[in-house]
Amino acid sequence: MMTVGIEKMRFATSNLYLDMTDLAHARGEDPNKYLLGIGQTEQAVVPPSQDAVTLAANAAEQLLTKQERAEIAEIIVATESGVDHSKSVAIYVQRLLELNRYARAIELKQACYSGTFGLMQARDYVSLHPDKKVLVIATDIARYGLNTSGEVTQGAGAVAMLVSANPQIAVINDDSQFMTADIMDFWRPVDHDKALVDGKYSANVYRDFFKEVWQRYQDTTGLTLTDFDAMVFHLPFTKMGLKALRDVLPETDEAHAASLLAAFEASRVYSKRVGNLYTGSLYLSLLSLLANDTQLRGGQRIGMFSYGSGAEGEFFSLTLAPTFKAGLDVLGMEKLLDQRQQLSVPAYEELFEGALWGSADQKAQSKQDPAHFVLTGVQNQQRQYRRQTRD
């Protein structure tokens, strides 16, 4: 029997980070407010030489063999950090990675949710065309501004997923339940480069959405919490997912609750060190779970809660393949995070204010950026990208 799901996953982020203890001291806060109350220890900092396009390309490049580049029939990029109101990030990625010329390329937007819609679209396409593959990338840079309430939840990165028939990581089950409501908990007007958010309200809406779609999922499928070996959450900050999980733990026994909590801790290892990825946060959580939970086995069911402010939520499940570890690069992921350069708060603030914004001619210093793909600047109102080779 043919199944469809995630074949491989890879992640890319900046080579720079900020320690949350340093940020807390600079902002006159108790470090435990950030480390424990928010659940973040480090935050990716993006230099002007990186944007949603380069992060997406750097993540996807790690995935693809020459044959797979030719087999890709669709390139789906989910982001709320797009670089153009008209042209999709996916088309830039198609050129930079030299992907199949005869592939569709599209960009999706709905706050942090659209990566999930892209994954579902990919599953449905491959179900009809099992000889094809779809590249799904969730790429974002979370910006709230210096000295704002959301500053501690910034971050950046991209998760790339290859969707195929008979996948080696996980089957995407056809059991989704979703809901939508017009809610102003988070938004970014077209003339803003930073998000606006009602933080406490948004956190409450997130939990309300989770409880409602989770109940609807149980009513529709007949499954309960005891049928799940792990629950993975969109993590704008890691404490939020923990609160949502605790809301439903009374539905199971003490031993199973402890197991789910342990799985959650594994799922937030990477997010604590990177920060908010918007569209990619749920899938960085999944990547972290698969890499760090030693109790996972093929055939187990993983619950997935996707949320995007504004607001849209979805709950669905994955079934792990026995070969799921083969689709990951755990050592590469650890190396990526461990070899980053720590910034001082003043250096971080300078880079934050130096982000390329607008269409005026400008240059980005990319010589110190070790990434394969970099943004070199804007010329004639066009963003300029380059592939670098490193010795």
TrEMBL record:
Residues 265-353 form the Hydroxymethylglutaryl-coenzyme A synthase C-terminal domain. It comes from the Bacteria. The active site is at residues 80, 112, 234. GO terms for biological process: acetyl-CoA metabolic process. Coiled coil: none annotated. Keywords: Transferase. (3S)-3-hydroxy-3-methylglutaryl-CoA binds at residues 30, 144, 243, 276. CDD domains: init_cond_enzymes (cd00827). Belongs to the thiolase-like superfamily. HMG-CoA synthase family. Residues 4-165 form the Hydroxymethylglutaryl-coenzyme A synthase N-terminal domain. This is Hydroxymethylglutaryl-CoA synthase. GO terms for molecular function: hydroxymethylglutaryl-CoA synthase activity.
